[in-house]
Amino acid sequence: MGSDKVLDAKGLACPMPIVKTKDAIMELEPGQILEVHATDKGAKNDLAAWTKSTGNELVETTEEAGVLKFWIKKGE
């Protein structure tokens, strides 16, 4: 899946992946995609809850070699 911006949050512990995601998504226009890479297992639940509460959309989540990858579409 393509993205407009990639955020490397690998090695960061909660709550930093969410803090960095919030900052990065502010730089995007509505409808653009932010790709987040994280190694904190808690990021899966945290990002799902964060996207629901902020009006953004968690489009896809995958895991490769211990790295969680999230694609988040910025809401209006």
Automatic annotation (TrEMBL):
Top-rank lineage group of the source organism: Bacteria
Residue ranges annotated for the UPF0033 domain, each copy included: 7-31
Record PROSITE patterns: UPF0033 (PS01148)
Entry similarity comment: Belongs to the sulfur carrier protein TusA family.
PANTHER family registered for this protein in UniProt: SULFUR CARRIER PROTEIN YEDF-RELATED (PTHR33279:SF6)
Official protein name in the record: Sulfurtransferase TusA family protein
